[in-house]
Amino acid sequence: MSSITPKKIGNMQYRIEADSSKGMKVPVTIYADESLMQKMMTDRTILQATNVSTIPGILGHAVVLPDGHEGYGFPVGGVAAMDAEEGMISPGGVGYDINCGVRLLRTNLTEKDVRPKLKEIVTDLFNSIPSGVGSKGAVKLNYSELDEVLVRGVNWAIEHGYGTTNDADVCEENGQIRNADPNKVSDTARKRGAPQLGSLGSGNHFLEVQKVEKIYDEEAAKRMGIQEGNVTVLIHCGSRGFGHQICSDYLRVSEQALQKYDIHLPDRELACVPNSSEEGESYRKAMFAALNFAWSNRQMITHWTRKSFERVFKQSESDLDMGLVYDVAHNIAKVEKHKVDGRERSVVVHRKGATRAFPANREEIPLKYRDLGQPVLIPGSMGTGSWILLGKPNSMSLSFGSTAHGAGRMMSRSKARRDFTEDQVKKSLSDKGIFIKSLTRDGVVEETPEAYKDVDAVVNVSHELGIATKVAKLIPIGVIKG
Q: Which member of 231, 276, 348, 406 lies 3.0 to 4.6 Å from 109 by CB, making a disulfide possible if both were Cys?
């Protein structure tokens, strides 16, 4: 429970002013409506954001987005920008599931086409895409092949027949970030990662068959190839045990380096190193390897999804128009140019449980959408819905070009297991016309819609503030969980 009470400074904006007696170097800004703000006050979200504001080299303000909740050191739904020369880079500010991201595939099928075959398509997807804790992918990689994945990212998958260059064109960083270095990755991470490429994993990762319920921005939807009533597929997963191990390894490195660099923090979980130090460089190169692993992972799942649809609907992926709309990353730290205190600076933007939401005409946006703005994908819980948004100019002044990454958890997994049964959750989903396949009971129960905040409320905050605005709402009809 937070003892710090943020002050309301505007519509859906709260502030904790910088207090040097607490070591705060910048203020904390929280974007939330009253109900979401109250939820944040029930855990350590606000305290953690205040702690983040004490990190050496932090600029502007520490940001909490409307899906914010307590995390490891940094709150999930947190954004922090550090001076690239004098600031820090922090594994906890990226998180364990590096480049846990979301990608959206469209189809020209309607719900009417899919309903009669819903169980068949969900079962086929479930059988062809490995999922669950420690699940192994369908591809066996030796170390040199893994190194290629870590450097080439989505392009490795495409070169091996898992999709086309059109897919890479609509990924953040085109699905391959430069300067990844497999030599900065431990053997333990390699052992965990090598067997897992092309698998969904467990926890809040999922694959959903959805329908486009409502369109709010006709022009943007048209550009994305999205129409009301169409069936889409949303894939949410990351770098699996590979990224988790990299985070663990470099948290240890960072903790051990605190004394060396004379860094004093209110919470050891914030452990960080100077961005330009040897340790900082090594972490970044390893983290980039995990980004590339995750993009390749989602690409392979995309390929198998297309093959499932081909099998069940007896049409080719091009006949079904199964194009990739976009792939966004969260849990990432990148050097970007932002205006801070009136001048442009190079900053390391940590987005932990946050999605980039750049407005039109930023060169980082793929050409297809550059004059429109960056598509943003916000998954909700499996019983509610997900959203497509579009990055807008206010994101640059309010949140370092970032918005929320999902609904945000508000109930622990253990409480969900205590309060709900598998049959209850499956029945409530079935009553809404949603068919679910899951490997385990816990995979269903821990992800009950009641464990999450209201995704519509989270999206509304982003929309009202002009950070990223509504394009379309998607409703699940079939769900696969680990």
A: 231
405 assigned to active site: yes
C-alpha span between 425 and 204 (Å, rounded) = 15
Residue that has been written with the tokens 């309301």 in this structure:
8
* Type of residue at 162: Y
Q: Measured between alpha carbons, how far is 135 from 401 in angstroms, rounded to an integer?
A: 34
Amino acid identity, position 262: D
Instruction: Name the pTM for this structure.
Output: 0.97
95: left (phi over 0), alpha (psi -120 to 50) or beta: left
Residue 90 burial by Cβ neighbours in a 10 Å radius (0-12, 13-18, 19+): buried
Q: Are 250 and 272 in contact (CB under 8 A)?
A: no
Q: Look up tokens 């969904």; give the residue.
A: 200
Contact between 477 and 434 (Cβ < 8 Å): yes
Q: What are phi and psi of 339, to 5 degrees?
A: -85, 120
Q: Left if phi > 0, otherwise alpha if psi is -120 to 50, otherwise beta: which for 41? A: alpha
pLDDT tens by residue, the chain, 482 residues: 567 899 999 999 999 999 999 999 999 999 999 999 999 999 999 999 999 999 999 999 999 999 999 999 999 999 999 999 999 999 999 999 999 999 999 999 999 999 999 999 999 999 999 887 788 887 889 999 999 999 999 999 999 999 999 999 999 999 999 999 999 999 999 999 999 999 998 888 999 999 999 999 999 999 999 999 999 999 999 999 999 999 999 999 999 999 999 999 999 999 999 999 999 999 999 999 999 999 999 999 999 999 999 999 999 999 999 999 999 999 999 999 999 999 999 999 999 999 999 999 999 999 999 999 999 999 998 889 999 999 999 999 999 999 999 998 989 999 999 999 999 999 999 999 999 999 888 889 999 999 999 999 999 999 999 999 999 999 999 999 87
For the chain, the helix, strand and coil percentages under 3-state DSSP, each to the nearest 5: 40, 25, 35
Structure-token match 């392009």, residue found? 155
Residue type, 145: E
- Spot the catalytic one: 205, 236, 405, 463: 405
